[in-house]
């Protein structure tokens, strides 16, 4: 089914059925195309045409012990993709620690300039990305008069592909230009994080058709709750009491905001429910991605290598699914019809790729705590910016809920930094004893 374009089905119906029935069936099929669950299932069907053959090939190579018996031109490629280098040691400490040490030895003025540069880069990249994301998914293109409704872009998967292809290019160039650890992970293991990352990004774009951007930002802020659940399930992690306390605070704040939101923009309860379901899907998929990537880091890879591996499979999955559905060329045709959309899509991808590089650089120079504070401030500014640009109404109770969420996020940062500083101060005492 996914190998046919959406326009093929109405044509087949018109040939096989009388004109009246054909018109009804054609409109019904077009209606199904606008249902998000149907598009999600068709996307999954497209991914399965790549995943299932890949799974069968990997199982065959492992079952036949190809690592010991294989040879020929394809042997290095198959070994890298299926078996990897099982030695889980590398140059990661040398690669990642060098910039951090250089930053620590610099003057306070130099560090302040670096911090301003990182904060400005993160804010500019992700604030622009958020504004463009809402513009592309909620507004029409090509409207020449107020009465003209224009044309809306509907294919979230194409935007995911655009983001991933540029991120793949940037991370690939980074790996070529700068020294990286020796790669040891089997390449196919990136596909798990890649698939969940594609699905979470698709849900993120698709949700904006049903909910407001501030609601989406708050839902993303509350993903710490399913991340903790996934951490216990996937990685068997344990958490401190303050982590559970702040998770409860976040859920209370998000609930206050959602329950107090006005329904003028989305009056249909079905539509609102669809938005919540898609957001839950985003949070679940994104939580799995982060925990799976944590497990992959046991191979001592750098963050840029992780970025390259995940985006490589993301491009493979998305371009395959888009071509099978016939949506790839439809999206390109939309870009040619609307140059403004083409500019927005490219800029969206540039902001996403640059933002990822700023993330790596900021964490290397200042640590995860400073990075979390910057990104938390970015989320708060993004909500205010969206309300200002697109006219989202926030009630007093909803505003209080937003304040509770960000208070909980800052409490998490503060408690984590105190805990780490306590561990550092305890280490010299233990050595003296």
TrEMBL record:
<dbReference type="Pfam" id="PF08449">
    <property type="entry name" value="UAA"/>
</dbReference>
<comment type="similarity">
    <text>Belongs to the nucleotide-sugar transporter family. SLC35B subfamily.</text>
</comment>
<dbReference type="GO" id="GO:0051216">
    <property type="term" value="P:cartilage development"/>
</dbReference>
<keyword id="KW-0732">Signal</keyword>
<feature type="transmembrane region" description="Helical">
    <location>
        <begin position="112"/>
        <end position="132"/>
    </location>
</feature>
<keyword id="KW-0472">Membrane</keyword>
<dbReference type="GO" id="GO:0030198">
    <property type="term" value="P:extracellular matrix organization"/>
</dbReference>
<feature type="transmembrane region" description="Helical">
    <location>
        <begin position="341"/>
        <end position="361"/>
    </location>
</feature>
<dbReference type="GO" id="GO:0031290">
    <property type="term" value="P:retinal ganglion cell axon guidance"/>
</dbReference>
<feature type="signal peptide">
    <location>
        <begin position="1"/>
        <end position="23"/>
    </location>
</feature>
<dbReference type="GO" id="GO:0005789">
    <property type="term" value="C:endoplasmic reticulum membrane"/>
</dbReference>
<feature type="transmembrane region" description="Helical">
    <location>
        <begin position="38"/>
        <end position="58"/>
    </location>
</feature>
<keyword id="KW-1133">Transmembrane helix</keyword>
<protein>
    <recommendedName>
        <fullName>Adenosine 3'-phospho 5'-phosphosulfate transporter 1</fullName>
    </recommendedName>
</protein>
<dbReference type="GO" id="GO:0000139">
    <property type="term" value="C:Golgi membrane"/>
</dbReference>
<keyword id="KW-0813">Transport</keyword>
<dbReference type="GO" id="GO:0046964">
    <property type="term" value="F:3'-phosphoadenosine 5'-phosphosulfate transmembrane transporter activity"/>
</dbReference>
<feature type="transmembrane region" description="Helical">
    <location>
        <begin position="306"/>
        <end position="329"/>
    </location>
</feature>
<feature type="transmembrane region" description="Helical">
    <location>
        <begin position="241"/>
        <end position="260"/>
    </location>
</feature>
<dbReference type="GO" id="GO:0030166">
    <property type="term" value="P:proteoglycan biosynthetic process"/>
</dbReference>
<dbReference type="GO" id="GO:0042476">
    <property type="term" value="P:odontogenesis"/>
</dbReference>
<feature type="transmembrane region" description="Helical">
    <location>
        <begin position="397"/>
        <end position="415"/>
    </location>
</feature>
<dbReference type="InterPro" id="IPR037185">
    <property type="entry name" value="EmrE-like"/>
</dbReference>
<feature type="transmembrane region" description="Helical">
    <location>
        <begin position="368"/>
        <end position="391"/>
    </location>
</feature>
<feature type="transmembrane region" description="Helical">
    <location>
        <begin position="158"/>
        <end position="178"/>
    </location>
</feature>
<dbReference type="GO" id="GO:0001649">
    <property type="term" value="P:osteoblast differentiation"/>
</dbReference>
<keyword id="KW-0812">Transmembrane</keyword>
<dbReference type="InterPro" id="IPR013657">
    <property type="entry name" value="SCL35B1-4/HUT1"/>
</dbReference>
<feature type="transmembrane region" description="Helical">
    <location>
        <begin position="266"/>
        <end position="285"/>
    </location>
</feature>
<dbReference type="GO" id="GO:0006024">
    <property type="term" value="P:glycosaminoglycan biosynthetic process"/>
</dbReference>
């Amino acid at each position: 089914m996914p190998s046919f374009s959406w326009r093929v089905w109405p044509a087949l119906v018109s040939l096989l059925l009388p004109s009246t029935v054909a018109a009804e069936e054609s409109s019904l099929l077009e209606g199904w195309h606008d249902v998000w669950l149907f598009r999600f299932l068709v996307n999954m069907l497209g991914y399965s045409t790549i995943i299932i053959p890949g799974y069968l090939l990997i199982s065959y190579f492992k079952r036949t012990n190809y690592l010991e018996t294989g040879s020929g031109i394809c042997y290095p490629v198959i070994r890298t993709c299926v078996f990897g280098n099982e030695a889980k040691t590398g140059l990661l400490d040398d690669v990642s620690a060098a910039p951090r040490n250089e930053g620590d030895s610099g003057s306070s003025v130099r560090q302040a300039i670096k911090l301003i540069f990182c904060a400005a880069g993160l804010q500019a990249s992700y604030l622009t990305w958020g504004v463009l994301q809402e513009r592309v998914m909620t507004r029409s293109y090509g409207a020449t008069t107020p009465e003209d409704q224009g044309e809306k872009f509907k294919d979230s998967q194409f935007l995911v592909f655009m983001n991933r292809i540029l991120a793949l290019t940037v991370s690939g160039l980074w790996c070529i230009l700068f020294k990286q650890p020796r790669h040891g992970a089997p390449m196919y293991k990136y596909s798990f994080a890649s698939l969940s990352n594609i699905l979470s990004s698709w849900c993120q774009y698709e949700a904006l058709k049903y909910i407001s951007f501030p609601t989406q930002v708050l839902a993303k802020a509350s993903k710490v709750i399913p991340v903790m659940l996934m951490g216990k399930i996937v990685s068997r992690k344990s958490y401190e009491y303050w982590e559970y306390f702040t998770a409860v605070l976040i859920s209370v704040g998000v609930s206050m905001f959602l329950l107090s939101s006005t329904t003028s923009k989305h009056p249909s309860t079905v539509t609102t429910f669809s938005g919540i379901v898609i957001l839950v899907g985003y949070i679940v998929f994104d939580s799995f991605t982060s925990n799976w990537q944590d497990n992959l880091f046991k191979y001592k890879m750098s963050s840029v290598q992780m970025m390259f591996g995940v985006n490589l499979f993301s491009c493979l999955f998305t371009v395959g699914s888009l071509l099978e559905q016939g949506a790839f060329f439809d999206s390109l045709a939309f870009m040619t019809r609307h140059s403004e959309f083409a500019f927005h899509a490219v800029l969206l991808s540039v902001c996403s790729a640059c933002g990822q590089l700023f993330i790596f650089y900021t964490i290397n120079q200042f640590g995860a705590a400073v990075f979390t504070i910057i990104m938390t401030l970015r989320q708060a500014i993004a909500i205010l910016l969206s309300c200002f640009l697109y006219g989202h109404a926030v009630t007093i109770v909803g505003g209080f809920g937003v304040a509770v969420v960000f208070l909980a996020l800052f409490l998490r940062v503060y408690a984590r930094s105190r805990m780490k500083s306590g561990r550092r101060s305890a280490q010299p005492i233990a050595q003296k004893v």
